[in-house]
Design brief:
Blueprint lengths: L1 H34 L4 H15 L15 H34 L8
GO biological process, one term: sensory perception of taste
Pfam family, one: 7tm_7
Keywords: Cell membrane, Membrane, Receptor, Signal, Transducer, Transmembrane, Transmembrane helix
Length: 111
């Protein structure tokens, strides 16, 4: 049960960071649309701000180790699934080996 809660929190965090990043990218289009509505006195400032936002690499990171976005969520999910599959396969192999080793053994009590 705790895994589902932690997975939900992780999904919410990565989804929010991903959506915020996408909205920041969309803001350059909005700034260009605003540029056409105003007079020449502030167009220079709008153009400068548009260039600044355009070249701004907006991203959320974990201490600059990796980006926090949906690709991070998918990577963690697939890594956990792979680890779980390996554990299940090893558990099945151990149980089969345990049954095999006892089926060929005879037990003696006493001398």
């Amino acid at each position: 049960m705790w895994a589902v809660v932690k997975l939900g929190v992780l999904f919410h965090l990565t989804y929010t960071c991903n959506q915020t990043k996408n909205e920041a990218i969309k803001s350059t289009v909005i700034i260009h649309q605003i540029q056409n509505r105003y007079k020449n006195d502030i167009i220079d400032e709008i153009i400068a701000f548009s260039k600044q936002v355009l070249h701004w690499n907006f991203r959320f990171t974990a201490h600059d180790l990796f980006d926090i976005d949906m690709s991070t969520f998918y990577l963690m999910l697939t890594s956990a699934a792979t680890y779980l599959i390996i554990l299940i396969q090893m558990d099945i192999a151990v149980k089969q080996n345990f049954k095999f080793s006892f089926s060929n053994t005879t037990f003696r009590i006493g001398k």
